[in-house]
Amino acid sequence: MELTLTLLLVLFAVAMLAGWVDTLAGGGGLLTLPALLLTGVPPVTALATNKSQAVIGTLTATATLFAKGHLRERKLILPVATAALGAALGTWLIQRVDTSWLSWVIPVLLLGVALYVWLTPHMGKSDSHPRLSEKQWACTCAPTVGFYDGAFGPGTGTFFAAAGVAFRGQTLLTATIRAKLFNLTTNVVSVALFAAAGKVIWTIAATMMAGQVIGAFIGSHTMLAGGTRLIRPLVITMCVLMSVSQIAQHLNLLNLS
Q1: CB 110 within 8 A of CB 243
Q2: pLDDT at position 111 over 80
Q3: b/e per residue, 176-194, with b = 16+ CB within 10 A?
């Protein structure tokens, strides 16, 4: 694979769009991961490089939201810690066991989230009675989604947000804001382990990081400036697209074999 200026500019643009989408609804990896694979980057290296560039996007979004007065509650410490543990276990395990079954399970989960959001048009518009306490959520949902991000990744922000609405009774805006912090945590942990194994192409990662910064910055301000109406349709769209993408990739692998 030859790194040309044109190729790097294309990856920069893709990362910028992905940063905007990911901040609002999650699923930015649907754009960046295929782009990396199309350049000829090996799958594991593409996954590691994609995680590396995604870190800066979630960092930018989280920092922007923090500066605006969000994500400052002490109660976030526990779910951040458990999400980190889940991500570490997932990243460790993905390099040692067969996880091909995820090729079918994840699309089903994504379509389930899309259907749930579509059938509940008023979902997350106001706070509702929580089904789990903060501690229960931190000990169940946070490490589960964190494990998924470490082992696989696409749609992690969406799953964190959906779990916040469904089990904590949060508004979609609140759940999406919190999802940025949790996703940042799981990304950092996963990248650290991938980087230690030498799986990241840092030239590409740095280029895409620059695009992520711009996209995530715009996305954060879009969200806070009345862009919450975009979250629901984007969540549905990205869930469906990610599901179709995973199914298509799996079928393609079956045909090749």
Answers
A1: yes
A2: no
A3: bbbbbbbbbbbbebbbebb
Q: Range of 200's domain? A: 5-256
Asked if pLDDT for residue 114 goes beyond 60, the answer is yes
Task: Quote the tokens at residue 208.
Answer: 């895409």
Look at residue 29 in the predicted model and tell me its pLDDT: 76
For residue range 169-201, what is the model confidence (pLDDT) as tens digits?
998 889 989 999 999 999 999 999 889 988 899
- The tokens describing 192, both together, are 């650290």
Instruction: Tell me: pLDDT of 91 over 90.
Output: no
User: What is the C-alpha to C-alpha distance for residues 185 and 108, in angstroms, rounded to an integer?
Assistant: 25
- What is the number of structural domains in the chain? 1
pLDDT at 226 over 70: no
